[in-house]
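Show me any protein, fold above all:
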Amino acid sequence: MRRSIGVLTLFGEAARAVLRRPGRSGLSALGVSVAIAATVWVVALGQKSAAVYADLLAALGDNLVWVEAGSKSTQGVRGGAKTATSLTVADMDAILRDVALVRSASPQVDVTVQLVNAASNWTTRGRGIAPAYLQIKRFDLALGAGFGEADVTGARNVVVLGETVRGRLYGTANPVGEVLRLNGQPFEVVGVLAPKGQSATGQDQDDVAMLPYTTTIKKERPFGATWVDDIVCSAVSPGSVGQASADVSSLMRERHHIGVDQDDDFKIRHPEDVVNAQLDANATFSMLLRVLASVSLLVGGIGIMNVMLASVTERTREIGLRLAVGGTELAITLQFIVEAVILCAGGGTFGVALSYAGASVIGKVVGWDLPIPLVAIAVALGVSTVLGVVFGLLPARRAARLDPIDALRSD
């Protein structure tokens, strides 16, 4: 009981000492508050941006191995990407048959389509695919059931709309079962894709219409144009993507009769490299911001130490009197440390409140919902307490080691 009273007395004395100079104490605590809030914001932004890039990486595909039609060379003149017409559905079948590390695949046939219904029209990307494409590229269906192998085999006029296209043509209504005209031909809407947002390159992934690839080749391309633009594959595991890509490349070179000294007429794309590079850059930038936030914490702690040193100078006679009547060095040390802890803890508490208030503003500026991690709050309060102890120790020791006679003689 006597010990608890002593602790309460110690904190009471320390609090009264802090409140004797409210202006100076408030400014010192404010420095810690801003430093704590900045640290919390940096942590929150780092975690949110990492989550955003991780979602982009996940949205690229399920263990994606992406074979893209390459460029062609005619009489020494080399065309751009996808000008070669040597990538075929038969290549996809060979990949599924001969590459053990590939578990599923789909062709991708790109065309431009104009969609027209009774109320509106919209021009967008038409993409001829197999049913496996949605799983490989991690598209979910919000409405309807998509199309199946029977629709592909029969080259039926069915279409799955992206959310952007659905909004342009039907608003918020459910279009499943509706018939629209696609490049002049009637198509039944059998599904609507769940929103996916922008790709890593900023393209709207919801501005698309998915068709069976057989329908696209036979009805939306010139007669005889049977090549495909891409073959998207899913490897059996994340760790097998590299070897699967190498195996697919070897198979394609063999099938296309490409010599040792000849360039490929296809390209294995690695879009995850772009996102991984962004992740690395984000991690580096977040680390830099954390270092800067740590410097601001250090500056706030030094400010607290200066205030406490000034307090020791102003209270020299008081300290001398306490020492003269039997006060111990430990008691004097503890009082000044507790004063510093109160200043820092108060500043840390206000900093936490400031971080919540500022998070909504920062979130609106960057366009993100910016949650404050609870671990950041716990660390902030812990750091503020440690700052009080560390930066209060020097002033406390200086006060405790004053000579009582010299202290009582001071003006």
In short: The chain has two domains: 9-56+276-409, 85-264.
